[in-house]
Predict the structure.
Amino acid sequence: MRRNKLIVQKYGGSSVANPERIKRVAQRVVDTKRSGADVVVVVSALGDTTDELLSLAAQVSQNPAERELDMLMATGEQVSVALLAMAIHELGEDAVSFTGAQVGILTDGTHTKARIVDINAQRLAGELAKRRIVIVAGFQGINPNQDITTLGRGGSDLTAVALAKALQADVCEIFTDVEGVYTADPRIVPEARKLAAISYDEMLEMASLGAQVMQARSIFVAKRFDIPIHVRSSFSLREGTMIQKSARAMEDIVVSGVTLQKDEAKVTIRDVPDRPGMAAEIFRELAAKGVNVDMIVQNVSREGSTDLSFTVVKSDLPATLRVTRSVSHRIGAGEVTTDEGVAKLSIVGIGMRSHSGIAAKMFEAMARERINIEMISTSEIKISCVIRKLHAERAVRAVHRAFGLSRSAVPSRKLLATSRR
Amino acid sequence: MRRNKLIVQKYGGSSVANPERIKRVAQRVVDTKRSGADVVVVVSALGDTTDELLSLAAQVSQNPAERELDMLMATGEQVSVALLAMAIHELGEDAVSFTGAQVGILTDGTHTKARIVDINAQRLAGELAKRRIVIVAGFQGINPNQDITTLGRGGSDLTAVALAKALQADVCEIFTDVEGVYTADPRIVPEARKLAAISYDEMLEMASLGAQVMQARSIFVAKRFDIPIHVRSSFSLREGTMIQKSARAMEDIVVSGVTLQKDEAKVTIRDVPDRPGMAAEIFRELAAKGVNVDMIVQNVSREGSTDLSFTVVKSDLPATLRVTRSVSHRIGAGEVTTDEGVAKLSIVGIGMRSHSGIAAKMFEAMARERINIEMISTSEIKISCVIRKLHAERAVRAVHRAFGLSRSAVPSRKLLATSRR
């Protein structure tokens, strides 16, 4: 017997912010079910629940234990799944809700940012076989000690993708408050276009470059297990953007999108001795303090020492300075300076791999606008430049135009980039 | 090695209504721990949480599925345990929180009013052995299907008593917003006295007669397993009332307390044929509809038929009337009448068993006040009278006085009855 199409749908907190919206989600789930598909739904906590729970915690403890924070936070999604099940019943369909623990989402022991180790999908498969709509609390799991864990930022997306993998779903639909992935932020570039499709790799670069549609870790899992993701709006029926393996047609596109990140600061260590192990020492200590370093630029040395620059998110700046100054002193390097007036502009596209002159075209576009480039870093499918924040929006528009991303001649399904509405 | 004293403490919703109160409870728990005892704490949901969750449910469904209601409601206690654990950490003690499922509170499958079948106390014992304060979500468990269940009204008390049993605790302390069990409701009888001790049987009668300190089912379990219960106020350090096996001293007390119930209605079926099985037919159908019948009075028949009266809580009156009218018609009985203007006054005391004249003394007290008695029902340790609600308070005072319950000559530890403050 051929099985039905299986769709995993994930609805974020804003999609289930209140009973009215929960009912709308219920209707959408029921419509999907009645179209002949089996449906597994992953939900986040209602709108502000997370903030309310954190505020309660802050009122009883200055530094709440992470295990207890997980215990507390996990209730948010549990409320959502129960309410959504009720709302679906009200529409005459059979539905059953589960916590992460109940459907066997096994994680490691790292509280507040656990990693999914395995999913025991037996219970889920049993419920699907009964033709039920299955609703699963996002963001949470259970560790080998039977303690409740949460998955950290973007956790519900991860739950959805991991369930899609475990159940061999046909597609994982991520419902959000944007229509899909765009060639650039439409607030900056009004003529930016929604993409019909984007590759996992491009989306990964987009995600880590600040596009807030999905967290990088979920896309990484989707790529690894080849799970097609459909990012779409919970407020409209229009198709969104498919995230999938790169199709042949996509290879033709050289640059798929332009992204901008303004929440980073630049840190420079002057006169780092040109000896093996210096960089390792610096970044090992930063990693130990949980600081995520983004771009790192080091040029050739001059007179036995070199300047080393990197970017970190601004909230990590105090910790970064403490570590960096101490290491700099120890290894005999010079002054540590910081600069918060920067922005990072990137172009992304798998087509870049096989095309030359892309970097030059990008730099020329900025030169024409008399925008100075302070740092440059490249990967297989992206080029990033650090520039003055003051010129950031103008630079995005110039680069977007230079690569013809908004030309109507380019079929919209071949365009590519991300943004929040 | 002799183990520490083990105390199970239960704090109700009003004791943990907000962060300030949670901190106060934390302090009390820590004080208990530091006095040298091992402590297991059971908590209810924060103040109004239950109502808020029910309101959310009502907004998405007119008739929410009970399984999903349990899923929803169980989050309330989960929030409480996490917050209490954090607040205890803040005071420098080690504490760990658990859901009902995590500590193996196994129930049957009856959602919204499950019965505890077993407790797998292994995890708890392990945490206690690590000298940790253990905090358990009240009111909830897990059924053989791994679904979350809730225990219904008074569920957190039941959790506490059942844990005390499973862990062989020395005492189960029930913290509430009253100081203990009184000889009568102090709002009606200002000279009512707090009892130092009361027997399980008496407390059972008190509970089922409307005293709201504890639900009958928890007391029943405590009696069955001989678990001493200490009912006390979470707002004061004073000793409350011990509920325990009847002590010799208690036998001397003839009447221990006076209770009053005003939320019942009287139902009368006229001219019930005097044939075997008539009463059974009526009450079988009421039970099938979930109606709890309290007092039942039937006098000797006259001319082949009799009048049958009973009381039910007012909220059950519509269902009761539907059932009763249909059965009455089928068995050839007469008219069904109801009366909501009644109250039920009871005296309770194990001493009654061996004393005569108690009923007469009670009836005389009311006669002196010219209060008519409409129904009478007795058990081994109680006598209940249905009277006009209009006269209820006056009757309570008269009976309380008649049995000398407020006389200062009677040592207060021998007095007995319940009330909310």
